[in-house]
Prior knowledge:
six-stranded mixed beta sheet; three-stranded antiparallel beta sheet
Amino acid sequence: MARAIQIFAADNVATLLDDCPAGQEVIVTGGTRGTRLRALEHVAEGHKIALRPIPEGGSVIKFKTPIGHALQPIAAGTWIHLHNLASNYDKRSQSLDVESGAPTDTLYR
Length: 109
């Protein structure tokens, strides 16, 4: 079983404390201690997982703060990252590489 931490009960995401393969159960500590859900896909340690459904355009909330918005409907148990989240703070967030986080819109000569 993988572990995740939710900072505040109002947050709709938690951060994985362990690598979590698809289909594995996740136990959430913190805000809503004891919540359990099943990962729909692999979620790496340190990455976010949706705790409840988030509609397209809906806020992704961490630290009781909307950190971004969903680019598509996100089901509970889904990995939250650059492929389905647009940052509210970084206009370039959609040009970053999903794996490395490196900018892909910079030309190197």
